[in-house]
Amino acid sequence: MDQYLLKYFSINRSLALPGIGFFYTETKPAVLDFVNKTLQAPVTEVVYSNETNDDGEKLCGFISKESGLSTTDAVGRFNQYVQQIKQQLETGAVIELQGIGTLSKKEGNYSFTPGLNIQNFFPGIIAERVIRQNAEHNVRVGEDNKTSTEMHVSLARQEVKKERWWIAALVLGAIGIAVIAYYYLTL
To answer: Phi and psi dihedrals of 83, rounded to 5?
Structure first.
C-alpha cells in the first residue's frame, strides 16, 4: 500500500488519510543570500495538517487502477491500512510513511516530521557579480545600435561640456552683485 500512496502523493502533491490528517507540498521560492553571495534553490516541503481533505474516492480509484483490484477491494484495503496505522500510533509507535515522513502520536495529537530534506541535494551556488572592464557589447540607444565603446566616447564628450557651467554661474553672480551695489549706491 505504501508504494501506491507514495505514487499518488508524488502525482497529486497531496494525500489525505481519514482520521489522521492531510499531507501536501509547498514550494518555497529561491533565496538570494547577499551576505554570503549564494543563491539557494527553491525548496519543496511536505506539510501536515490534522484536518482531512476528503478525496477518498479519487485515491481509492487510483489504488484500484494501479493494483488491479476492484474499487470495493481497494476501498477495503485502504481503510484496513488506515486503521492499522491508527492502532500502531495509539500504542506509541512511530510510523514511517515512505518518502513522505514520520508520524507519531504525542499527548493525543498527531505529530509529523517531514522526511528527507531535498535541500541537501541542491546546495547553494555562488552568485557573484562579474564586472568586465573594456568588454565591448552592443547597446540600444533610442532607435540606434551602438557599441559600448562608442557610448563611452560620447558620454566622455558630454562630461567635458558640463564642466564649464560654473563660469556662467560666476558671471551671473558678478552681474547680480553689481546691480545690487549700483542700487544701494545711487539712493
So the answer is: -65, -40
pLDDT 10s digits, 129-162: 777 777 788 888 888 888 888 888 888 776 555 5
Do residue 92 and residue 24 come from a single domain? yes
Q: Confirm if 43 and 27 have CB atoms less than 8 A apart.
A: yes
Amino acid at 51: E
What is the extent of the structural domain holding 170? 138-185
Same domain, 87 and 148: no
Closest CA to 50 of 77, 1, 89: 89
**Do 44 and 117 share a domain, yes or no?**
yes
For 87, 102, 157, 171, 177, the CA distances from 181, given in Å and listed in that order, are 103, 91, 39, 15, 6
DSSP code of residue 30: P
Report helix, strand or coil for 135. coil
